[in-house]
Amino acid sequence: MNAQKHVSPDRIRAAFSAAMSAMYKQEVPAYGTLMELVADINAAVLANDSHLHERLKETDSLERITEERHGAIRLGTAAELAMMRRVFAVMGMYPVGYYDLSVAGIPVHSTAFRPIDDAALKHNPFRVFTSLLRLDLIKDEDLRKQAEETLTRRQIFTPGAVALVEKAETEGGLDEADARRFVEEVLETFRWHDKASVSADLYKRLHDAHRLIADVVSFKGPHINHLTPRTLDIDAVQEQMPKRGINPKAVVEGPPSRKCPILLRQTSFKALEEPVSFSDENGNWTPGTHTARFGEIEQRGIALTPKGRALYDKLLDATREKVRPAADGSNTAEYMKALEETFAAFPDSWEEIRAQGLGYFAYSVKDEAALARFAPGADLEAMIAAGAVQFDPIVYEDFLPVSAAGIFQSNLGDDAAQEFVESPNQKRFEQDLGAKVLNEFEHYARIERESLEAIQRRLSTAEAAE
Ligand code: OOG
Ligand code: NI
């Protein structure tokens, strides 16, 4: 056991993210086209905005701006989820947040495995939105049994991947050669299989129960279903997708475009119909198609407090009561207009968002000399007013259930919304996962609190030094 020889989890994650990107571009050429469009638009935005260019250079690494921020998979069993947690832990990715998608008519619940602390996010922010199929929501008992049996028979991890996870756990990490092998082995789990592990008939019955059930149950593994780079202008990418021959979903999910961006805006191109084949009892292959894989883009804003989030949810609900976006795009302009009008009620300056307690901020020293005039325990507002302390929005690094439902929908076809009974299942999800998920609100509150504590500590050490 030699910790020095271990590769940092951040580097393993970065290598994994790069390997996924290369594999997915090859598997889904339209995704490569989307990446090119995003790179072009990001370059154009930066050329026109030297201030943004400078700020990104200081805070982020500019070259990595267009790299993938997230991907998504859908798992079939508790055992798969529990093992996936151990795989991601080797890469410094931990479960954050719980999303019950059954409320939106999608038979899964989910978490996001992601780097947590600031340094890790900066090194490489790649995360994987990971869903577990809710087989209990299949009403047809016979079909549910067949789905269960099919899933229990499959092994989505290579023996090499499992062995390396165990090694990383017992030895506290992996050396260079093992880390390289680990990425190669784990990549296999995310690969596309065009030969289904079910018959055409079973596929159809699963598909009729819900398209997503067919997607999870019918294949050897949980193929990565999309990757998502960051864009600096999501509206421009949305508008230009058709010019590059790709078909965007009808609306951008999340809040409207604003001066002070909040939470997360996302859009995707619609999933492609791809050739697959189904096996029959005699070992013959029947050709068919399956629609699951797409490409997405995202643009992030400030993390909201529970109060801010409640306002966001209220305004989004109010918008959707006025206009429900149609998947065929027939009322997109109307929806976007309603969204903008309704969200006028959400303050659009950092000062006001902070004053009303709607968002999380990180506080830092702006002017040492000005700070020196304050004693320990000094009032925050007074320090801000005196120009001693400044505040910056904390970026939202998680997901949104309504948006996620919209993203799922974009690859489920336009008629796939179904009613499922809602039930609070976080406990069961955590049991299956074998761990608790980190509450995202508590996490952002802690970052804010720690930034304030650091300022108070500065005041105390300054006083002690006098
Ligand atoms: C995941 C959809 C959720 C997002 O960005 O909100 C998601 C899926 O389709 O499996 O990735
Ligand atoms: Ni996504």
TrEMBL record:
EC numbers: 1.13.11.93
InterPro entries listed in its UniProt record: HGLS, YdcJ_bac-like
UniProt keyword annotations, A-Z: Dioxygenase, Iron, Oxidoreductase
UniProt cofactor(s): Fe(2+)
Recorded superkingdom: Bacteria
Pfam family for this entry, one: HGLS
SMART domains linked: DUF1338
Similarity remark: Belongs to the 2-oxoadipate dioxygenase/decarboxylase family.
Protein name: 2-oxoadipate dioxygenase/decarboxylase
